[in-house]
Design goal:
homodimer, alpha/beta, Aspartate Aminotransferase, domain 2, Aspartate Aminotransferase, domain 1, 7-stranded mixed β-sheet, 3-stranded antiparallel β-sheet, 12 strands
Chain lengths: ~375, ~375
């Protein structure tokens, strides 16, 4: 089995992730932040440690400004809907995932003004296009960090700078970058950062997070039990409780902490370098194959570990099916929940076959993938 | 260690739950419903199987009307906020958890009219009080099934009947009952049912669910990638995708399925009978101890496996601390995220020490608990 679908969810996880989840479930699987007995306190402490580890990774000064969510989508919805109100203007890009575009489209129906800046054929966004889209009522800019279709790395430094200079909030979707690329919310002027726990951070599914800059008043979407200020029928406005109603995914967060600890120990630069080498290798070899079209910037300085291809005019699902059935190689075909990005690069009809690499992929696996693509391209 | 905090989260889980989660994570930890390769398809199938198992448990005719959520709180928020609009009237009870009361209080500020029917000193709700609260604009009745404070079993059959007769929607919070008490959404006229995965259903944290009656149009709260109808920027309106944006907790749902399978195999009646015996035993023995006050109906025909007590005027946190430190018995003190329920039974100042039992507790553990209470009550 060769798993090249890490942009959907990373697989496998480091052993320490599996082990720490099981340990949490079996030894102290209580409800954290609620009961105050030793099992609950132990889980609470572990959750706080994960908060600290992630805060360290993203240079978040106060770990309490980091909330845990179910997935990245929840974080994006909280940020987008907690900020924007009727009459506000928001700028985003055509390279976004539906987890950004669908909430924005829903808000557009309620009177939020939306500008979608278009990427080029490699999925690149020109920051000046964003700058030129700013209006008097622009309240928020939201962009992805790395495209889930083309792997294109977005100029979030420049966009953050533009946002800061114009007194506009900047929200980043780190679905494809967290755990692999350096993210510094201070230096990059990121006001809100949403990320999944189960992709680059190597944690389990059912985890994600949202950083909210100190003092930023974002409406919460859910209210409920928080285990704090329980005598009040109003949702507490303290961080992170305001956004963490109900029982959290305790053992999942412990597993996420183990994933982040693994990343910090191995070193994010080493992980990225490995993924860059795999990506470069794959791009170079794929470009040599007749009939194969490779999308994206085709350069690891501009592209994350996501490479989309097509073979001639073949349907992307058909190619992916052959890769899975005949070669035991797992990739993702279709539209990748990013229809506008596909329109941007001209693959809305055909879809693409997406290869996405993770820290546990090897050069041998890349070779096998290339060999499979070559054979298939000769047969179709 | 004696764990009497099952109302917060059940612990331990059946071994099959731990094993199935690990198997899912290690063998097919892909992103379900997305990529179409064999790992993703296997996880999708397992998730569907869990949907079917839960549908069987609650007599839900179409498993696609069951959505998976992060926790019970999310389900309650989706149901409450997806139905109620400014000008609507909603009826609830004073025995609800903050996961019901806080969302309703938030909606009240936005123009939803709220009636809270008060329980008696044992936490009982009189259905005629609900009936008498119905107005022309009453759209929803929402009640818990079993109180998380007193264990009081609510007359959901009668309330469901009243709702049906008056053309009002009925939503049930099964946080303390799912997996232990029979719930039949058809027979009981339940239109919306929210439940946690990690309590009576014996699944892991990070899981929960919401049943929505066929044809009921509830606004979704989040939009995002659904892996379906990906070419559209509008949220799909198909079930369950409309309410399941972003990556689900795949291995968690597999674990939840294992929990439900365990319940169906052992038999819900057997589990309930066991918990009733423990509860009855505990109530009888606790009532014999001087200085101990026991709350709730004190009768297992009216009370689930939740028994709250106090010792004299002692602070509930202090007693719980002694139980944990000196006896290694885990209970939950304080207000249990249910302040109005505490006001109803007169314990808002003192809180209570809550004992809640699960399928793996034993009569010997009950004896140890009683012995500990007796000793503490003699010392304070």
């Amino acid at each position: 089995m060769i798993y090249f679908d890490n942009a959907a969810t990373s697989f496998p996880k480091p052993d320490i992730v599996y082990d720490s989840i099981m340990k949490a479930m079996k030894e102290y699987g209580a409800n954290p932040g609620r009961s105050g007995h030793k099992l609950a306190l132990r889980l609470s402490r572990e959750i706080y440690e994960t908060r600290e580890l992630i805060a360290r990774l993203f240079n978040i000064k106060n770990p309490m400004n980091l909330i845990f969510t179910f997935n990245c989508t929840e974080g994006l919805n909280i940020g987008i809907k907690g900020i924007l109100e009727r009459g506000d203007h928001v700028i985003t890009t055509s390279m976004e995932h539906n987890s950004v575009l669908r909430p924005l489209k829903a808000l557009e129906k309620e009177g939020v003004e939306l500008t979608i800046v278009k990427g080029d054929l490699a999925g690149r966004i020109d920051p000046t296009h964003i700058k030129n889209s700013i209006k008097k009522n622009t309240k928020l800019i939201v962009t992805t960090h790395v495209s889930n279709l083309t792997g294109t790395i977005m100029p979030i430094d420049e966009i953050g700078q533009i946002a800061r200079e114009n007194g506009i909030l900047y929200m980043v979707d780190a679905a494809q970058s967290a755990g692999v690329y350096h993210i510094d919310v201070e230096r990059m002027n990121i006001d809100i950062l949403a990320f999944p726990g189960h992709k680059g951070l190597l944690g389990p599914q059912g985890t994600g997070g949202l950083y909210i800059r100190e003092g930023l008043d974002i409406k919460e979407i859910f209210q409920g039990g928080t285990g704090s200020i329980s005598h009040l029928l109003e949702q507490p406005d303290i961080m992170p409780d305001r956004y963490e109603s109900g029982t959290p995914n305790g053992p999942g967060i412990v597993g996420l902490g183990a994933g982040v600890k693994y990343i910090l120990e191995v070193g994010i630069d080493k992980i990225r370098k490995h993924e860059e080498e795999l990506t470069q290798h794959f791009i170079e070899e794929a470009l040599k194959i007749d009939k194969v079209k490779v999308y994206g910037p085709l350069n690891v300085k501009e592209q994350g570990a996501v490479v989309s291809i097509n073979i001639g005019q073949e349907d992307s699902s058909e190619i992916s099916y052959i890769l899975d059935q005949n070669y035991d190689i797992q990739v993702r075909p279709g539209l990748h929940c990013a229809p506008m990005a596909h329109k941007t690069i001209g693959t809305f009809q055909q879809g693409v076959v997406r290869f996405s690499f993770g820290p546990f992929n090897t050069h041998e696996e890349i070779e096998s993938g290339i060999k499979a693509i070559k054979e298939i391209s000769e047969q179709v």
